Description:
- By secondary structure, the protein is of the alpha+beta class.
- The protein has a single domain (18-130), classed as 2-Layer Sandwich (TATA-Binding Protein).
- It is built from two helices and seven strands, in the order E-E-E-H-E-E-E-E-H.
- The protein has helices at residues 42-55, 115-130; strands spanning 18-22, 33-34, 37-38, 59-64, 70-76, 83-94, 97-106.
- Helix 1 crosses helix 2.
- The protein is globular and about 45 Å long.
- 35% of the residues are buried.
- The model has no long low-confidence stretch (mean pLDDT 91).
Amino acid sequence: MADLTDLATARPTGQPNCHLILPRGWGAGPAHRGSPVFPVEAPVLARAVAACLAKMPRIEIVARAPDGLQFEAVEHSRLFRFLDDISVRAVPQGEGRSALALFSRSRVGYWDLGVNRERATRLLAALESEMPAARA
């Protein structure tokens, strides 16, 4: 089983081969962008994340946190079969709301041609189609 990434201390690598999304005011940052806030409790959002990841091609969930709020996944690139790491945590925001900490990064290479940003964008879009984000 894979280790869980500490998303509260995650920081971009300084190379253009990763994408970090964090809830406003949460984590060490700096994030590439902020997370939308969803009008559901964190466990509900975490289950929706797992369902969305399961529908995405070439992605496999390799670890889950005991509290069920965090997942570690890997994706094999289509052409060269490179592995990318994806860490996602549902973060409670109070009052029945939650947001995501999401860190998508390449294991090899300096530049990823925007693959990690696109992956994060696809996951957020899938979640927002399942449960529209609330205005923060």
